[in-house]
Amino acid sequence: MSEFTQRELADKLRECAGEAEGMDVADEAALDTPFIELGYDSLALLQVTGVIKREYGVELSDDAVVEAETPRLLLKMINTNLPDAA
Q1: Which positions of the chain have pLDDT values less than 70?
Q2: What predicted TM-score, i.e. pTM, was given to this entire model?
Q3: N or C, which terminus of the chain has less Cβ within 10 Å?
């Protein structure tokens, strides 16, 4: 995998937090909106990054996940740590 996409992040958030939770982060305007404003708390993000770790081998510390306050920042962290990106 060369890049983890915004659509993939939106799908994983929906999968982990449920359809009723949060706004669609696949919308371009949502990229720089804080997760908390999108309706996703730190627990939802930790669940999502746990799934991403299992499925894609991306290692992110809990502190890094908390620092990634927006979808754009989280995508950057994921893509920087993709095994193929190393």
Answers
A1: 1, 19-24, 26, 84-86
A2: 0.85
A3: C
